[in-house]
Amino acid sequence: MLLRWGHANDCGEPDRQRDGGEPTAMTVMLTRMADVRIPHDPADLRDVAPVLLGGRASMLATGATTVTVHDLTGTGGPAAVFPVPRPVGCDEIAVSPDRELLVVCDPGAVRAIAPDGTQRWTVHHRDWPRGCRGSVAVSADGSVVWAHVRGPLIQHGEATGERLDGELWLVIDARSGDVLDRTGVGTGTVGSDHVAVPGTGRMGLAVDRGQEGAPIVWGRWDGAALTTVRHGDDDRVLLAVDPTGRRYVTVDHASQQFLAIHRLADGSIERELDAEELPGADLDTDGEDRPAWNFTCGFLPSRHRTGTGTRDSDSDSDSDSDSDSVGVGVGVGETGSGGGALIVSSGDGGYAENGVRNWVVDPGSGRVRGPIPHLGGEEQQAWPVGDGSWLTRGGDALTYARWRLTGA
After folding, report:
1. What is the mean pLDDT of residues 329-344?
2. Would you say the C-alpha torsion 391, 5, 407, 363 has a positive or negative sign?
3. Cα–Cα distances in Å, from 306 out to 14, 335, 387, 408?
4. Phi, psi of 60 (to 5 degrees)
5. 290 or 53: whose pLDDT is higher?
6. What is the distance between the alpha carbons of residues 377 and 355, in angstroms, rounded to a whole number?
7. Is the pTM of this model over 0.90?
8. What's the 3-state SS for 162-214?
9. What is the mean pLDDT of the chain?
10. Is pLDDT of 6 > 70?
11. d(C-alpha 152, C-alpha 149), whole Å
12. Dihedral over Cα of 115, 117, 118, 120: its sign
């Protein structure tokens, strides 16, 4: 199904369509790849989050006693189930690419758990204060675990005696649990998240210090040593890294009004986008109701390029036969940026969670297109999966539509 959808171009005039109603060359297709129902007991569900594991689109679902990995490329059924000793949120866990290891960030330990419930290893550390937490991530090749913890590390109930007794960033051998290296990060954390740099040994650590700011620390593991560098003035929240590893995206911590595209090499800002300049932004409000970017965004692979309105010939096998398509003029990849397009969301009110609208940005030019009209006209948050697709939620927390942009 093709919806003819006009939007304003850079001159503020509507893009035109060809005679006969065909989309212009600036049109790409928004394809509804599949509808997915997560087979999880609604009464037991605690949290869900889309992830990319070993190149496969997946959904994590946490319950009172389990963490389940659901495969989004098939029936949505369980691909792995891990028993856990306590309820956890998706921001406290990470799963290996082969789905054979669950890593949990407990208040006083990092634990690795097998699908049969066996605890493979544990790294103990000083407890986080109540209401604060670290985070964990597994490398793309599954060889190491990155962990942000509160030092010092604990062995046999005693501190290790090392001088690093503040917050630590660890690189842990995923098989043995040996701490391969560690470094102090000098942050006072309320919470943190890891953002990987694709195809490298680099990782970003996004730190939330509450009202005190949002430091960004970049780490590199070369197989022998962990080195770190800190970008910016601790006032921007790290959101995503592009597939080429050349750029990353942040939003300002204080107002969420400014979305920035940075060079990863030095942290310099290449483009900055003002939420108050988006088409249709309501500027007749004050304070927390003003337009803002929210904290969810992701990159789409560069094969989603400007096309002629026909479906991409190298589309995924699970999205060819029964998918619906909507024509949207998004102008993706016009500058040859290599990292693909960026899907971002804006809204109103606290954390920009009200009146959500989704947009596509060319990171090279900063051109913004949208809002993206999902079928049915829903105002729904786009959850990027990491493979170029994204999810929108259906009538409940277990029902989702999976989407992508396709070009010729």
Report:
1. 58
2. negative
3. 17, 10, 18, 7
4. -90, 135
5. 53
6. 12
7. no
8. CCCCCEEEEEEECCCCCEEEEEECCCCCCEEEEEECCCCCEEEEEEECHHHCE
9. 80
10. no
11. 9
12. positive
